[in-house]
Design a protein that fits this description.
alpha/beta, 16% strand, 7-stranded mixed beta sheet
């Protein structure tokens, strides 16, 4: 899971609107996860590009891996509503080869391996999920061996780009590192010629800070300092950053963000000098000193959901109060069905082999832009290649299964240390 595309819950007591929240707290991966990501599933071949023979049974079955409990349980409702909405629309448009697409009964649990095995036993062709990046390796290992396509709407860990899935794994969320060019652009747009990068220890902080340094070099900005800190221990890093005299400071952090901002303030680095990564942005309010963030900017991934899309989701689930990962889930289900239609087969290997093409990436061949299963089906029946652009924006899977375009909402802080949406940016190359 990445941090979410709007602010809520423990990481953000108040949201600027009904945008998709980007969760910071749960997305942090433990050190043990880094070891898991460094391994591989042992899959060979590449289902994304290999030729396949039709092997489906005529019914496209889609399963969900819903893995959030406790305070995170609201994430399940948004994804479930979006999946139901997409399947309803697909079936209203004729389903797959005239037969209804089946959404397998949902179960919620953190035992990813067991849930994945249950979905294989239920004859799932495609699985949407998991939410948490730390659980992706377990899901990939089980599902890819069974030749089931996997599309996560929420995984953002950079290391998953390199995880061996035999070509069965895709994600409609951008990798964490995609935000680097946008963070640098915000600094440059403010007139900065030099930056300092202060990052929290851990996979997220290290990966994103390395990407920021590379993006700064490409943009012609000098990086005068790079400092790491552990949560609650940012004083030394803040002092080193201050001593370097940067025009702008990019903070890459999650759990330790508030403490780092406080230490940067104590060092005289406050307000408009600060640019916050997606894990660091939240509604701080009185938790920080007066005007500590006035003029600071930060980003959250995603697009503000249209009123129409929100209304459709609420019609599916009248109790829905949050739309985290709804757009990415909706797009994942539609892409799976469109890929099956393009392949004229519902087997997971056939779906995986067509996902790159129907998402918009197919060499120099131009596809027909379409925003729904029906529109894409009409394009294919007219002899054109469908290019699905969904609720989360253009997708364009690369050969790692990563999206190649990522949208971000820009937020600016007022004197009350509360962020309000002030613009949008796009990272043209989002894959790892």
């Amino acid at each position: 899971m990445p941090p979410a595309a709007a602010m809520h819950g423990t990481s953000a007591p108040a949201r600027p609107g009904p945008a998709r929240p980007r969760f910071a707290a749960t997305a942090a991966l433990a050190a043990a996860t880094a070891l898991v990501l460094a391994g591989c599933s042992g899959q060979t071949g590449n289902a994304r590009v290999d030729a396949v023979d039709a092997g489906g049974d005529g019914t496209l079955r889609i399963g969900l891996l819903l893995d959030n409990t406790g305070k995170q349980s609201f994430l399940n409702s948004a994804q479930l509503a979006a999946a139901k909405l997409a399947v309803q629309e697909i079936n209203a448009a004729g389903g797959h080869k005239g037969r209804p697409v089946e959404l397998l009964p949902e179960k919620i649990g953190e035992d990813t391996t067991s849930r994945a095995k249950e979905l294989v036993a239920a004859k799932a062709d495609v699985v949407i999920g998991p939410t948490d990046s730390s659980r992706a390796p377990e899901a990939i290992d089980v599902l890819s061996r069974a030749k089931v396509a996997i599309i996560s709407p929420a995984n953002a860990a950079h290391g998953l780009t390199r995880y061996r899935s035999g070509g069965y794994y895709f994600r409609t969320s951008a990798a964490d590192t995609a935000q680097a060019s946008v963070l640098v652009k915000l600094a440059k747009d403010s007139g900065a010629r030099t930056i300092a990068i202060i990052h929290e220890d851990g996979m997220y902080g290290k990966d994103v800070s390395v990407a920021v340094a590379a993006a700064a070099k490409a943009a012609g900005l000098g990086t005068v300092a790079e400092a790491a800190f552990t949560a609650g221990q940012a004083q030394q890093a803040a002092a080193a950053t201050k001593a370097a005299g940067p025009d702008s400071v990019i903070l890459v952090a999650r759990a330790g963000a508030q403490g780092a901002i406080a230490e940067l303030n104590n060092a005289g680095l406050a307000g408009s000098k600060l640019v916050l990564s997606d894990g660091a942005i939240r509604q701080y309010g009185s938790a920080l000193g007066s005007k500590a963030l006035e003029g600071a900017r930060g980003i959250l991934p995603g697009v503000f959901p249209s009123a129409h899309f929100q209304g459709e989701l609420v019609a599916v689930d009248p109790g829905l109060k949050d739309m985290t990962f709804a757009a990415e889930t909706y797009d994942a289900v539609n892409l799976a069905a469109i890929a099956a239609a393009a392949a004229q087969d519902d087997a997971g290997s056939s779906v995986a082999a067509k996902l790159i093409a129907v998402s918009g990436q197919q060499g120099s061949e131009t596809g027909e832009p379409c925003r729904s299963y029906k529109e894409c089906g009409d394009a294919m029946r007219a002899g054109k290649r469908a290019d699905y652009d969904g609720e989360s924006g253009p997708i364009g899977f690369d050969f790692n299964g990563d999206v190649t375009t990522a949208n971000y909402m820009v937020f600016t802080y007022s004197a009350d240390n509360r962020a309000r949406m002030s613009g949008t940016e796009t990272a043209a190359r989002a894959g790892g």
